[in-house]
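USER:
Make up one protein:

ASSISTANT:
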Amino acid sequence: MEIDTLPKIHNQLIALQNALDVSGVGFWQLDGNDRIECDAHSKTLLGLRATDTLEDLTEFLMQIEESQHENFLDALDTARNSNQPLELSLHLEKTTNGRSSGFKLSARPCRLPGEPTIHMCGLLQPLPESSVEVEKRSESVLAEVRSANAELANFASIASHDMREPLRMITSYLRLLQERSPEALDDRARRYIKYACDGADRMRSLIEDLLSYARLDKSGKDFEPLALDDILAHAIDNLGANIRDTRAEVTVAIDHAPIVIGDSVRLTRLFQNLIANAIKFNRPEKPPRVRVTFKDGEQADAPGKWIISIEDQGIGIHPDHHEMLFNLFRRLNTRDEFDGSGIGLAVCKKIAEQHRGLIWFESNYGQGSTFYVALDKADAQSLA
């Protein structure tokens, strides 16, 4: 071998090792005297630490299930004698996180320069998880997420409840001072008290909205078939005063009312929030106009669902705000323009997701918006 080729071979070996590192595949080799060499990745796949030693085939066998020892040794002898590649899957004797893990072993006989015996050189790589193992892993992660969400919701509920009393005391004493000692207050002091009370009232509203949001996960009511026109009628009735005050026109174009699966209280709130937003974010020069329609999901790439749309002719949504629209407590307009805590659409998104549904929107800035909700269909005959 020419000396000039040595650096090139060295670089190729480094490149090969880097490729193995990136892929998580390990290299191993076994000589004619059953002495074994493994790199760090192979040791990891064998359940060992990178600093652990693994000197011979016996120590290798101790890492895999005893029931596979004979098959592995027979396959190894056959590969050596026939000069054919070896490939098989092996499972570890130890368990990790309560489940058996394993690896795929592949090798082929080869003669190394200066070595009189045949070596087996090859790779170890992780076994793909079975569908059962994936399902178990998913269930475990999902259970952890549910537990964390429950703890967070419980914390939000307790914190929200405990924070309301100090706020009540602040506003009560400030207003008491204003009522009982008016002569001690000048215009500036009265203005400051008003600012403080208004801020406390906004904080109390935020806390109540947070508490309401946290309680969405605590509803234990079973889902049932519901007539969508009844849900929308309840939502519009709840908004009666708002509709009269703003002279809004809300039309519902739903014939042969579709039946959906869900919780009537939460779905009423979802549509109440969407219709209230359509009324609120209106252009000032004319009364709000809101139109509610529905479409069979079979016509819109959503089989098995009804799609309900709430269309307005309001101010629309600026393109810069589209990505953050459903985020919790994200106000997209100033408080002087529109009141609210910025939680309404986050509540809508959460309710839709709880019903295995979808919510999205389309908007032309300055011309209006349309919000869509997709909910699971139910058989009309299932409606009691």
Observations:
- Residues 333-338 have pLDDT under 50 and may be disordered.
- The domain at 220-384 is CATH 3.30.565.10 (Heat Shock Protein 90).
